[in-house]
Amino acid sequence: MFSKLVGNRNIKKTLRHLVENGRVPNSLLFAGPDGVGKRQFALELARSFVCTSKDEVEACGVCAACRRAEVFVFPTSEKGEDYDRVFFSEHPDVGSVIPFRRNVRINAIRDLEKEANFRPYEADARFFIVDDAEKMADPAANALLKTLEEPAATSYIFLITSRADSLLPTIRSRCQILRFAPIEVHEIEKYLVGERAFTPAEAALAARLARGSIGRAISIDVDEFKAVRTQLIEVVRSAIATGDIATMLKASDSMADPKKKEAFEPALEILESLIHDVWTIAIGGAPSRMVNQDVGPELADLAEQCQPSDLARWLTDIQTLRENLAVNINRRVATDGLFASMAA
Ligand SMILES: [Zn+2]
Q1: What CATH number is attached to the domain comprising 285?
Q2: For the chain, which end, N or C, has fewer CB atoms within 10 Å of the first or last residue's CB respectively?
């Protein structure tokens, strides 16, 4: 049921309308940021066709066809050839093509082309979801274009992308585009409490950190986040108030720990959000714009002692550091440099 999906209410409305009037186009492009549920929407649309006990518009979500249509087993192999085909769910009319590393392989698209010409097995139509469609190189995209131009009446192709601009214009122009928006904080919060057993306090924090993405919200470890944040609040406090260099160097050590490489950029983001929040308070911005509302009083205390122009400079420094990460800088040296500049 579309109502089970989180956010993007207007897209639900559009889809219901298309289904109700029998006007679902054979090719649809689900475009928008990562983690907002584009694939779930596409799958739900397919289910509204294959469901064997649907009401006028919506899939029931519980019949055998509905349940089978959402069960996919994708390969985890490191061999490209293993990705050269359509992977069908347990429903033989609902399939998906996925990329291998950075590419949706042309042979996978050729298999899709072949399958899209077959009559449906069980349902009245067949559905093909192409994940990360922007990962089709031109030959694959051109192969798909042929299928989009001459679609079998009973085949539907749903392209999923977070980078619609990277698709060939000829592909885009063949598809009706559904543009997904980031999901609102309160909707993510509700979902985390209702469906993922987050406590209200955890959900409130994770939802604000998620920047509109359910996927990101789910992956946040709130306890781990708080531990790192506590240390970084001390960094900001040292820079603004106490001038405690030792604390900053200790934080730099733990941030740039080579054993926790993947934690470096998230930590940088947390530091950025803290500085931004202090700045927001200092300039009298709306508290609702703060990410770290749960430590608001602590940050307000720092805001009273800071120079907003310093904070703006630190944010620029962080941005520069992040750009330099691309050229493989020494994280430890760079972080020491950043903290030294903040303490100056
Ligand atoms: Zn059903």
Answers
A1: 1.20.272.10
A2: C
The total of structural domains in the chain comes to 2
Mark 307-326 as b/e (b = at least 16 C-beta within 10 Å): eeebbeebeebbeebeeeee
Domain containing residue 319: 221-343
pTM of the prediction?
0.81
Query: What are the tens digits of pLDDT across the range 6-23?
Result: 999 999 999 999 999 999
Q: What DSSP assignment string belongs to 250-296?
A: HHHHHHT-GGGGGGHHHHHHHHHHHHHHHHHHHTT--GGG-S-GGGH
Q: What is the CATH number of the domain that holds 100?
A: 3.40.50.300
Ligand 1 centroid distance, CA of 221 (Å): 34
Per the structure block, which two tokens stand in for 58?
């919506």
Distance 79 CA to ligand 1 centre (A): 35
Q: How far is the CA of 316 from the centre of ligand 1 (A)?
A: 52
Is there a single domain that holds both residue 41 and residue 120?
yes
Cα-trace Rg, the chain: 24
Three-state SS for 192-244 is: HHHHHCCCHHHHHHHHHHCCCCHHHHHHCCHHHHHHHHHHHHHHHHHHHHHCC
pLDDT band at 85, cuts 50/70/90?
Answer: very high
Average pLDDT, the chain: 93
| 316 close to 229: Cβ distance less than 8 angstroms | no
More confident residue, 300 or 3: 300
Distance 1 CA to ligand 1 centre (A): 9
